Amino acid sequence: MGDNDTTCGSEVPTHVAIIMDGNGRWALSRGLPRLAGHRAGTENLRRIIRACVEFGVKYLTIYAFSTENWGRPREEIEGLMHILEDVIDKELNELNKEGVQLRHIGRLERLAPKIQEKVLDAIALTKNNQRLVLNVAFNYGGRDEIICGIQKMIKEGVKPEEVNEHLVDRYLFTAGVPHPDLIIRTSGELRISNFLIWQAAYSEWYVTPTYWPDFNKEEFRKALEAYTKRDRRFGGLSATVADNPSHA
Ligand code: IPE
Ligand code: IPE
Ligand code: MG
Questions:
Q1: Which of these, 219, 229, 180, lies nearest to 202 by C-alpha position?
Q2: By the 8 A CB rule, do 223 and 184 touch?
Q3: Residues with CB under 6 A from ligand 2
């Protein structure tokens, strides 16, 4: 992946997940209200979605609002809900034209009926698009997702001996989506914050101190480049050692 390439070579991660963090600190450092940071973060999201399409990433999952974010001040929560609505209103047609399939992970129930309707309409409109699947984690929590899956299994009478990793995968909000290959967290925090806690078991991590609104296409390219250098062993041995046991 050279500096002037617009593609990322052969080892582009199939699924990238992003914890878009640092909007508040970005705003604070400029003397702006936190919501200005969330707005700038949304602008940036548009750039990163385009970059995913360009680089050939097939699945992008973005953490937009966690089950714990309800603990924030009311004005900030209302602002974030408003931004979600606004993004759907303003971006949906363009995203649809670009071949982006929108999905939602998390629970829609707690959102205002008007927003639920918009999200469901957006999902229906884009359901046959194939270029990029964009999973929006909104009112999402990894623990909540697992609880939801267990409840569903029990309701459907799944037998204990039928429970295995594949079955659990099918009961999560992400059913049918490959596990993330690469998880990016902006703003330097070194924690998972209840994001994809089951699916992240063998994901590669990339953490950058850059705040989300400043995490541009070049930074994204650097993250993908770092990924190509990782040695994913999944508990086994690296390819060089496995091919040549004398190195073991
Ligand atoms: C991430 O930015 C966006 C959401 C959690 C909605 P933050 O709002 O967490 O920004 P910081 O971490 O306070 O800087
Ligand atoms: C994670 O960021 C949630 C989102 C990016 C939506 P937080 O800012 O909520 O995470 P903590 O509180 O720092 O762990
Ligand atoms: Mg944060």
A1: 180
A2: yes
A3: 19-21, 63-66, 69, 189, 191, 193
Work out which ligand 2 atom sits closest to the CA atom of 63.
6
- pLDDT tens for each residue of 7-50: 444 499 999 999 999 999 999 999 999 999 999 999 999 999 99
Catalytic annotation, pick one of 44, 69, 121, 144:
69
CATH 3.40.1180.10 fits 15-231, yes or no: yes
How many Å separate Cα 213 from the centre of its chain? 16
Residues 169-187: what's their mean pLDDT? 98
Ligand nearest to the CA of 184: 2
Closest ligand to the CA of 193: 2
- pLDDT band for position 125 (cuts 50, 70, 90): very high
Q: Which residue, among 72, 133, 83, 77, has the nearest Cα to 105 in the 3D structure?
A: 133
Q: List, edge to edge, every strand of the sheet that includes 204-208.
A: 100-105, 132-140, 59-66, 15-19, 182-186, 204-208
Mutation to probe ligand 2, out of 28, 48, 62, 69 (largest number of atoms < 8 A from CB): 69
Q: Which two tokens stand for residue 91?
A: 């971006």
Q: Identify whether 128 is a catalytic site residue.
A: no
pLDDT digits (tens, 9 = 90+) for 211-245: 999 999 999 999 999 999 999 999 999 877 766 65
Would you kindly state where each structural domain of the chain is located, as residue ranges? 15-231
Which amino acid, one-letter code, is at 218?
Answer: E
**What is the reported pLDDT for 239?**
74
